[in-house]
Amino acid sequence: MILKSSSVPVELGVDVTWFNTWNESQPLANVASHGRNTAGTGTPIAVDEYGDPISDFSMYIYEGNNPGGLGGGGGAQYGEHLCSFNGSASSITGGTITDINYDSGLNKTTFKYTTDHAGNSQIVLTGTKRTFGSEINTGVTNFKMMRPGHVESDFLNSLFTSVIEPFSCFRTGQNWDDYTYDVETPLWANRAKPDGLFMGGIKTNGAAAWETLIKMANDLEIDLWICIPAIADETYLTKLFQTFMYGSDGNEPYTSIQESPVWSPLAQERKVYFEIGNEIWNSIAPYGYITNLMDTLAQAEVTDGDANHYLYPGSSYNFWYGVRRRVGYLTVQASNVCRSIVGDSNMMTRFRPVISGQAANSYIGNLSLSYIRCVYGGYDWYDDWLGDHFPGHYKNLVYAEDGVTENSFGIAARPINYYIYGYAVAPYINGEDISGLETYYNAHTIGWMNNAIALANDIGISPMCYEGGIETYTSYTDEGIDGIIENELNYWFSHGGGLFCYYSLVGNNGSGLVPDLTRQNPDDWPKFKAVRNVAGLT
After folding, report:
1. pLDDT tens digit sequence for 515-538
2. What predicted TM-score, i.e. pTM, was given to this entire model?
3. How many domains does the chain have?
4. Interaxial angle between packed helices 362-375 and 446-459, expressed in degrees from 0 to 180 and rounded to the nearest 10
5. Which domain holds residue 51?
6. Long-range CB contacts for residues 483-489, cutoff 8 Å, separation at least 24
7. Interior CA angle at 110 toward 109 and 112, to 5°?
8. Last residue of a domain, one of 146, 161, 179
């Protein structure tokens, strides 16, 4: 947490979005970690349990207009990439390949890769052998392609780290794990692996391994906000939280503290915020796949006896009740699994479950919160209705020590802040010019922030923003744009708001704090200067 000179607490975070070949953020020094598995025809290449290819393969490194640095305008990838892998290959093509050398004693190949354009860049390895005595076409391991100016031991892209200083947290809400918005149950074995290739995705999107995100938080010394696949089962949740608590060997999590873990757990002084999915109300693809699936699954559960009480007393079923009450149930489930692994003392202090909702329609978020209060707390539907419509009228129940008092569902009655740390919204600002942005902010954004803060405070959890800022206004240099951002952030924090994650760090569509870092100093971009001012760094 950074304190402004006014002593108003400021918790300022930022969304990093996708880990893939075409997004502008590109946080990792090893370009191959962002690569996309293609085999040239789009057919995925099989990998082993650590994510390394087990046959010849090709991989997209950069796609579209992304120059492989941060942003779309400047050629940060131009120059030599120092590359290496364990094993050998009879042919390496793509870009300009020079200085190929194979050390049989180390079973290690090194070479240099250079690209001189900002379009699609691909690398192809054929005749691969994992060891000196392996059969042909058996793949390689530990493939690295270091960005210009980086060496094999570097983990983070120096351009990325240069813009992190104002922030105490980064969010990966659109870390597309090929499951975050898919309708198939995620298997732990199929997730992105920290030592392997293809975090850029088997599909068109991409995801970072959980271990990679943990190491980013540890190395940057800031907190982390993740979105858990919405249909993750208890096994996946257990392994996820074990990884955060104890670390992993790159494949499976440890189940106790290790003296020398291969991949370290989240540092003791770091926090992780977690929510189920991302915007499970949005109907636009790909979000809508999961939104509709929640309704389908909730209806099936109701037909099968309503074990999770979606039709709690006083309610009836409709689409939004099913979707958002199931989100409430899944969040409680994840919270409980997490608590069983990390213990009571770490819950809400280091491990923080979050419910997100629409800024413009608090009804959506409150459907999940109301469900948790009624089914897992001690409210009945009428008490909860009064609270929804008349803030300050929630019944103040006395919960027995250890929550042994059962409610009408036979569930130990606990306050909502036993399960949930915060309620988050995305108070965006839109407009076609500076005057329009100011008008929109005064007419809409301020009210949305007030509503979110009031709702969260009324039920005893932290008000938060999972996204926010100027959404689609494409100019980065207009006079006055910095003042609009400062006004929003200062208003939020001065009125009791908690963590605010700006969307996003880098992007040339108007939402990014900077369009790229390759053309000028980031401090010269007005929006980035605004967050530095709010963070007390200028």
Report:
1. 876 666 777 889 999 999 999 987
2. 0.92
3. 2
4. 0
5. 27-65+78-146
6. 483/530, 484/429, 484/434, 484/437, 484/438, 484/441, 485/527, 485/530, 485/531, 485/534, 486/530, 486/533, 486/534, 487/441, 488/427, 488/429, 488/441, 488/445, 488/449, 489/10, 489/12, 489/530, 489/531, 489/534
7. 145
8. 146
